Amino acid sequence: MSSKQGGKLKPLKQPKAEKKELDENDKALLQKKKEEEKALKELRAKAQQKGSFGGAGLKKSGKK
């Protein structure tokens, strides 16, 4: 870098990643992963509707 050159240097452009060809096993794994994520989202939605678990809070003894 010479003293006349100032400012930031532009980063070199990275080559675009080539798209991989997916075989049947890869497609099956991606499909299974999507189904699991969908199931988790449904379970979270159900859990939010029900509220907190237990609901008892702090238990008090019968003594005064």
Structure description:
This protein starts with 23 loop residues before the first helix and ends in a 14-residue tail after the last helix. The protein has one helix spanning 24-50. The radius of gyration is 28 Å and the shape is flat. The mean pLDDT is 79. With 64 residues, it is an all-alpha fold. It is built from 1 helix and no strands.
> Overall pLDDT, averaged?
79
- Please give the count of helices: 1
SSE arrangement, N to C: H
- What radius of gyration results from the CA coordinates? 28 Å
Biased composition (Basic and acidic residues): 15-45
Organism: Corchorus olitorius
Pfam families: TMA7
Region (Disordered): 1-64
Brief description of this entry?
The protein has 64 residues and is mainly α.
Q: What structural keywords apply?
A:
single chain; 64 residues; mainly alpha; 1 helix; flat
Write the layout of secondary structure elements.
Elements: H1 24-50
